[in-house]
Amino acid sequence: MQTAQTWQDTSRAALPGIALCSAVAALGFLAEQTEKALFGRAWFESLVMAILIGALIRTFIGLHPRFEAGVKVSAKLLLEIAIVLLGASISISAIGDAGPALVAGVAASVFVAVLSSYTIGRMLKLEHRLALLVACGNSICGNSAIVAVAPVIKARAEDVAASIAFTAALGILVVLLLPLGQHATGMSAERYGILSGMTVYAVPQVLAATAPVGLLSMQTGTLVKLIRVMMLAPVIFCIGLLGDCSAERTQTARRIEWAKIIPWFIIGFIAMMALRSAGMISDQALGPVETLATALTIVSMAALGLSVDMRTILSSGGRVLATGTISLGLLVGISFALLHLLGIR
Predict the structure, then answer these.
(1) What residue intervals traverse the membrane (predicted)?
(2) pLDDT class for 267, splitting at 50, 70, 90?
């Protein structure tokens, strides 16, 4: 009885903050729709706009203590639920159709890119967690990778917001420049599709970058991007394993804490992916599931913004941008190396 009462009190205390986060998320969505109405496309997605609006509120207005509990719930629990739901959008069968050489090449490239990007971040004096967030965002799937890795490494809200902000900016730049590069070089549709899937951060951005080149490029780019997204779970597993088996522990004290290495939401993500692959999640149900996942993610990002003082982000912004830019250039080089190894012209 006492436990139930405690849960009710906690839920009641969280409601104002959840409501505030939802309102900020709605403003972010409205801002995205306004962009589309004015410019014909959204340069900044509602997810990024929600972070920005929330951060502006926190920086210039402040956050009343009554909202703190709900903001914390929205930033953590709602985000974890969203990650689980996103697993339903991925089918294992699509990965198998790509061929072992391409799958293995993309997987190896992701690990090389993560390690290289992390090293660059540390050389530029980024703190360990921030360097890891930038590396995963750059190498795997942008914002989705950042928000999935953040709770595993216990990243600060400022680090997550900084990583997402600059990843979003670089992502837009890549989408704009890639089609120009294809037009200038006359790259084949298949080659360009693989390059786009390897370098563009988000699936919608892959579609935007490849659509001008044609259907084959879109299909190839989306498939390669899907393989990169699939690498999120193994990368998180390795990060958790390395963190658990740090050099500070003695050999006898090293005990793998599986709950920390593989958080419940990653297990749920894999389970949803398996259900989708087994045909237990219908195409009709997939739309509402993806919509709910997107909505929860935007609310979580609003909470993230409400946890951040922008002055803290700006203090490390130059190093984050430099790390992301150099890492992106390195990722392009890795992509061309993969194309050469696969013999795709």
Answers:
(1) 12-31, 43-61, 73-95, 101-118, 130-154, 160-180, 192-214, 226-246, 258-279, 291-308, 320-342
(2) confident
Higher per-residue confidence, 36 vs 10: 36
CA dist., res. 118 & res. 191, Å (int): 27
Q: How far apart are CA 13 and CA 28, in angstroms?
A: 24
Q: What is the pLDDT of residues 189-215, one digit of tens each?
A: 888 988 998 998 876 677 767 877 877
How far does CA 223 lie from the centroid of its chain?
17
Say what the pTM is.
Answer: 0.66
